[in-house]
């Protein structure tokens, strides 16, 4: 553990130049006293590290010195695909490995390329979650991730979308971060008398709905044909299509046509793609939505820019919804 920390300390100075003991302690997540001991040990071992005293001082390496101790550990190699996603790496329990891998990669680059990489990092930041959304509580994310890495079967107490709790025995195959929410794909074990688990299609579970998780003392064989990205893309497409089963016929104003893309899902908005308002400023469109309840709330946000023609149930529900809202302002 200490040997790895000493290497990281040298790489920090090599990549960032002069750093104070406080800055090194924060980067390495140790105390300043530990930094003092580590720098003394490095100096005694022949690493040309110097301390500049006084205001603006700190530790630095002699000009031109470069270490070649840049080999990646197993954990650092696993964290590489998360480069540029430090928060996601931290939630998966790979934050320290990701930071160390980044330092080693930068140290291995020639001077010119390292400067270009640093420039991109200082000018590009990825913030995955959508606006006005608080982060989900995912206390079992690290455990799910460990089961995926190690191919360990788990048992989970899981709360379904309808509020019911179920217990499942799963073989976790992969993890997906979508719009700030974590999901994992897993093969469920069959319930008594069911088909063999290897014949079942992977299912998608939301990590925030895992109530309890137990790692079983057994490993599973990951299917060679499983492709995480392709399986997720297919599931997401089917999921979106399956949720939009209600066909509606509406009239949209010119402004309404503009609002479709901003206020409705891509599946719903597809029904208005390419349409143009007529001479009277309106056009008809077929829009697919999830349900009468969802469409009532969604179409109400359009205000006077939409008129529901079919189905009658939705037209009635929307009229009642708008009348009830208008009643608050009748005075």
TrEMBL record:
Q: Which domain of life is it from?
A: Bacteria
Annotated Gene3D superfamilies: Winged helix-like DNA-binding domain superfamily/Winged helix DNA-binding domain (1.10.10.10)
Signal peptide range: 1-21
Q: In what residue span(s) does the HTH deoR-type domain sit?
A: 2-60
Q: Which Pfam families match?
A: HTH_11, WCX, WYL
Question: What are this entry's molecular-function GO terms?
Answer: DNA-binding transcription factor activity
What InterPro entries would the database entry show? CBASS_pafABC_assoc_protein, DeoR_HTH, HTH_11, WCX_dom, WH-like_DNA-bd_sf, WH_DNA-bd_sf, WYL_dom
Supply the name of the protein.
HTH domain protein
Which PROSITE patterns does this one have? HTH_DEOR_2 (PS51000), WYL (PS52050)
Which UniProt keyword terms apply here? Signal, Transcription, Transcription regulation
